[in-house]
Amino acid sequence: MNLAIVFFLPLITTYYFPHVTTAGADYSSSPSVLTQGSSLSVEKKDHLVSPNDLFTAGFYEIGQNAYLFAIWFSKPMLDGNHTLVWSANRDRPVNGKRSSFSLSRRGNLVLTDVGQEIWTSDTQSNSTLKLQLLDSGNLVLTKLENNSYLWQSFNFPTDTILPNQPFTKDTVLISSRSSTNLSSGFYKLYFDNDNVIRLLYRNNEITSVFWPKPWVLSWDAGRSTFNNSKLALLDSQGHFVSTDNLTFTTIDYGDALQRRLTLDVDGNIRVYSLNHRSWRVSWQAISKPCAIHGICGPNSVCTYNSESGRRCTCLHGYKRTNHSDLSFGCEPLHDLSRDHENYDFIKLPNVEFYGFDYQYMEKSTFKGCKKACLNNSNCKAFQFTFSEKLGSFRCYAKTLLFNGHHKDTPFHTYLKLPKSQVLSYNQLVASKSGSYCSSSTVQLKRTYEKDSANGSLKFMLWFNIVLGVIEVTSFVFFYYITRQPSGTTTQTYLAIATGFKRFTYAEIVKASNKFREEIGRGSGGIVYKGILPDNRVVAIKQLHEAVQGESEFLAEISTIGRINHKNLIETYGYCAEGKHRILVYEYMENGSLAGNLSGNQLDWHNVFEIAPGVAKELAYLHEECLEWVLHCDVKPQNILLDNNYNPKVADFGLSKLFHQGVTDNSIFSRIRGTRGYMAPEWVFNLPITSKVDVYSYGVVVLEMITGRSPTYDQSCDDNEKLELKRLVSWVKEKVHEDWESLIETQIMDVFNPMIKGEYEKRQMNGLLKVALQCVREDKDDRPTMSEVVKMLLHLEMDV
Ligand SMILES: *[C@@H]1O[C@H](CO)[C@@H](O)[C@H](O)[C@H]1NC(C)=O
Ligand SMILES: *[C@@H]1O[C@H](CO)[C@@H](O)[C@H](O)[C@H]1NC(C)=O
Ligand SMILES: *[C@@H]1O[C@H](CO)[C@@H](O)[C@H](O)[C@H]1NC(C)=O
Ligand SMILES: *[C@@H]1O[C@H](CO)[C@@H](O)[C@H](O)[C@H]1NC(C)=O
Ligand SMILES: *[C@@H]1O[C@H](CO)[C@@H](O)[C@H](O)[C@H]1NC(C)=O
Ligand SMILES: *[C@@H]1O[C@H](CO)[C@@H](O)[C@H](O)[C@H]1NC(C)=O
Ligand SMILES: *[C@@H]1O[C@H](CO)[C@@H](O)[C@H](O)[C@H]1NC(C)=O
Ligand SMILES: *[C@@H]1O[C@H](CO)[C@@H](O)[C@H](O)[C@H]1NC(C)=O
């Protein structure tokens, strides 16, 4: 065993700290400026480095004997790869021999491949020039006389813009072809003629705008067409402003993070923030992956669920064009241009193909629509939908089946196929009882049972985690090694690698002063105050005895370690020794929201801080955090407040830790207590999606506003019980969410008289409406958490 440690330790250390040992030395020898008449050569791996060491410009190997002249972040990511932010020749890589990048005496930048010119900046000047890489990541050709730029890479972005890099009428972003092929791909971000920033899909045959939604007027999409200066900028704090009125703020707004905005291979724009040498998504333009056009190619339907991600499925009667590249879509097994007597249709329920209607008929009949499609050999399918506005059916005949996706509304497509195919489809459907094109709803694994004795619900929640192989391995090492009574150096290294410290039980006992000061009883455990040897005040949560194995516990902890947001409680470490399972985390001065509510310690200002804070964190868990996590237990007890009353959410993802062997009363009351916050899906045994958290969130906000607890309180006497209606229906009776503006007396009716201070009526009105949308019965009617964040941010700005 000791041998194993000796063997692996050097591996781990170099793995995590390669920069310190090798890279630093490398860079110091390289020039920081390229002067006229000199060049960078591919063989010598010449490169320029920005003064702050953040960026490097030079030849970057993208494949065997294929190099780009590029700019990248100097530090490699955890997977060892570098992140490119710009390249000169993405579509024409050069050889690994006799290629060079030079600044000519006449002032031209030229990239050559064995003497052949591949790329040039097309500049010339009589003044003295130098090429340098700035701290911002901008590669600039500077005139020495007055420091003006003759050329700069910021004017010619590829798929990424960096903070403070202007995006203008003359710039476009083009996505890469794939994650391994960096040449120009299908998606383009640009300022359109009407001054609006748009996303476009284009291939050799098709162009299709999809963002903002083409069927929504720019105005309704929140865009303005009036300002023709066409300028957009992401600042280093994470705030984006554009002259078409597109503005957003990243979820981790603030200083000190390196960011980039990239048009990704999948056609989505994302802002990434660098965090522990990996990129985290802090904003994205499109939340529904299947809303991106062209993503599955022609004759294919896009489906998405959070477990398996996006999938492209060929239509019946079609086969995949290229198995290694989904974007080529599918091709027919039959020839539609032949004899049209022999065709019939199959119904694809709730499937829509956007665009490419060659014929549109109002007040159509199904028969007429069918006939029109049969009559035209180019017709591939038709859509037949009822229009409430017209009071009749509409028929769209399609020559091209593109952008296929599922739609919740009754929106059916009828696919034209040879009769033999229709027959085989019907047989297939009969045998699979209609599983084709079944609902795309996300369904999480869970068990559900009703406890007949007291009618309370007992449930167990799962969230899906795919553990990165690296983390698993490092964790196994971690666990394995720290079990040995080895030196403290080992522990420190590994604590850095995983972000957590492992405490011994003795240390915990000491820190908590033998569990003297209890500060709360949360779900699944008792929380004590403690002080670490370095004088940090911490909360120590002793989980109820769980039958969970140590490795499961560690896996869980490792998940928590990778979830990171300023509105999440920070975990410092843990203890897993014998039967003890203990978490050590940030101590929150002001306790839980529940405590503050019952102690009447909040003012309205706090409420308007807490509501968006919690929303941002949940949005992060649901959408930004790359491994989709449901909290499933959002309630005031799990929302803690720091000394500035900033909310932090605790206990996410821990639901699995204490589900087994729970019989004691405290656990039962926990489950019953949470009942008021549970979405109707639980009760009706419907699929559990992230919308359950949206519901619980809505209840928490209503609870803050009204001061009424949604939980069933056993202590109140019978009279009170009769009075006590369910919080949600009580509020819904008092105010209607579709009322344009609530009048003062209605707000007075519901608001919590115990909360101190003045409130802005408009803000209150808005908050109440958002909360009511969150607690709608049908999960599809509820907004997503990121939509909630947007609405709340609007409220803040309005005031
Ligand atoms: C890292 O780069 C190599 C080739 O340079 C590639 O095969 C691998 O997929 C990359 N890893 C990631 C996570 O992109
Ligand atoms: C450089 O100088 C030459 C001769 O003096 C002149 O003809 C040319 O226009 C100048 N070029 C630039 C870019 O100023
Ligand atoms: C710098 O000098 C060039 C002429 O060499 C001139 O065209 C340019 O406008 C000057 N730029 C500034 C910022 O003064
Ligand atoms: C990358 O994609 C381009 C465009 O589709 C293609 O021409 C090129 O061959 C691809 N390169 C590699 C290495 O697959
Ligand atoms: C831009 O957005 C702001 C805030 O949402 C709004 O007040 C303003 O009217 C918008 N401007 C235009 C021209 O749409
Ligand atoms: C357009 O936007 C720019 C930058 O925000 C602003 O300076 C300018 O005044 C705007 N122009 C008009 C006509 O609104
Ligand atoms: C499929 O696509 C890949 C990548 O673009 C390409 O290399 C390959 O030749 C294609 N295969 C076929 C059969 O077209
Ligand atoms: C079928 O197509 C022919 C021309 O190709 C046209 O004259 C006829 O009206 C069409 N019939 C129907 C029912 O659309």
TrEMBL record:
One of its GO terms (biological process) is recognition of pollen. It is an enzyme of class 2 (transferase). It is a single-pass type I membrane protein. It is found in: Membrane. Residues 330-421 form the Apple domain. Residues 25-154 form the Bulb-type lectin domain. Residues 513-797 form the Protein kinase domain. It catalyses: L-threonyl-[protein] + ATP = O-phospho-L-threonyl-[protein] + ADP + H(+); L-seryl-[protein] + ATP = O-phospho-L-seryl-[protein] + ADP + H(+). This is Receptor-like serine/threonine-protein kinase.
